[in-house]
Amino acid sequence: MSEFPCEVIxxxxxxxxxxxxxxxxxxxxxxxVLDKLKVERERGITDSGLxxxxxxxxSNRKKYLLNLIDTxxxxxxxxxxxxxxxxxxxxxxxVDATQGVQAQSISVFHIAKERGLKIxxxxxxxxxxxxxxxxxxAQLQSMFGINPAEVLQISAKTGRGVxxxxxxxxxxxxxxxxxxxxxxKALLFDSQYDRYRGVISLVNIKGGVMRKGDRIVSCxxxxxxxxxxxxxxxxxxxxxxxxxxxxxxxMACNMKESTEAHVGDTLHHVNAPVNPMPGFQPAKAxxxxxxxxxxxxxxxxxxxxIRRLTLTDRSVTIQRESSTALGQGCRxxxxxxxxxxxxRQRLEDEYDANIIVTAPTVPYKVIYRDQTVIVxxxxxxxxxxxxxxxxxxxxxxxxxxxxVVPEEYLGDMMDLCFSRRADNLDHRYLDSGTSASAxxxxxxxxxxxxxxxxxxxxxxxxxSGYASxxxxxxxxxxxxxxxxxxxxxxxxxDALALVIHRSAEQKIGRTWVKKLHKxxxxxxxxxxxxxxxxxxxxxxxxxxxxxxxxxxxxYGGHYERKLKHLENQKESKRRMKKIGNVDLPQDAFFDxxxxxxx
Length: 598
What we know:
Residues 13-20 and 26-30 have low confidence and may be disordered. The relative contact order is 0.09. The strands form seven sheets. This protein has an eight-stranded antiparallel beta sheet with strand order 11-10-16-7-8-15-12-13, with no helix packed on it. Strands 21, 22, 23, 24, 25 and 26 form a six-stranded antiparallel beta sheet that branches. Strands 27, 28, 29, 30 and 31 form a five-stranded antiparallel beta sheet that branches. The protein has twelve helices and 31 strands. Helices cover 23% and strands 32% of the residues. It is α+β, with helices and mostly antiparallel strands. The two termini are 58 Å apart. Helix 3 links the parallel strand 4 (90-96) and strand 5.
């Protein structure tokens, strides 16, 4: 790698086959290279892990080394995008020429601007019949102040214009700085786990040289390691003798625990200390859910599967929890609902796990008279609070939401936001034109708990799929929240507890008791199904008892003979109701938790 000094190194795009990095296959073959996971290929998304690839590009009789990072586009993975941009000098702002600027594009643009990256605007899908490059270019100019002459137009499908993008990466993005004569200084910006080699770290060399056999130290933990392998991703792992300034590659160093590889850590040689570089904000869990095995005897196996899976997904938090209804399980924290769904699918695909996932919740802040507690499990939420209790106030997390939608759907989007307790609603037009082509950006403040259930489904349904959604953390705000518990025969079921807003307690209570009424098997005695807030019952359904015909063997005689048997049956059922337990079966839990309340 000595033939690539800093002057010929750039960071940029993802069109490797155009330069021979990936050979062409037979015509019509759809070979997916960057998406490694099954869930990525099935859903057509990039998961939370970063995809790094290096390529060699020839321009003006010189060879350039381009380091390319493919980042997730979904709002859940904004933390992944932020740390990938920290390892780059430039970014490609890829915009769909048929749909225009999306809400996620706006947030990523501002993150890149704050870090001082050179931004290259690119319009993709210009070969589509409905593409409107001139209107989208005007959008970029009005929203971001981008010069229309700098916007590149390409078709990744046909390869048209891709060469101009690679040339722009070389010409517009400044090369990294650094010298081979400086002490080693490497930024660790991602890691993954290999069952044979341990932790494989992705590093960006800021100064000095990293070679196989070097002894290095972590600035964060102070632990020492020996480098056993270094290499580049081309696009698969290619071992090399060394990495020098400006180069990005992978490193194996006998690191056995994934927790030792801290994202944002600085690595240096033993006895050659350097000043640590600024790291990253730690990943913040936005959504929590409990995961339990369908068969309670499989808990040990499930816990081990979760721990192995989190070795490749560092943003998931784990905590053991126990439920009287579901048994032993784990409480996991995720970056968002898509992240949670992807993790669940990977557990089922890669480890053949048969699991029950509880309803997603968000972390609430409960302010007592003498302390403040973060509550992520509804069972830990106070049953009642007010002036007479120790709880002074309850706060819920808020987000600043941005929705980009065609003008004709603006009314539906405003109605959706108001139904989810939106505040500070505002909108502005992104471009001018007819009512069919004008796009509007709607901004508002929403409670996070209102968007972790079916908000995305409603957003796409009401906008015919045209709306895009993005949000960022907006702190906490005091709110009138209550804990709803569900009682079966007067006994609470802890796994079904919810934290809701007081204004929705009637609607949610009635919906859930009707769902429970459908899935709970009938008993030999009458079972009341109740939704309770504190000591108040807000909704009720009654599950009728299975009744045997005790008078079938009687014939003739006075009617009091039959009445005597019926009274004995009624008294027996009354005694059974007092001492009987209603066990909610696992398949009933699976049915009710796998379908969201409408």
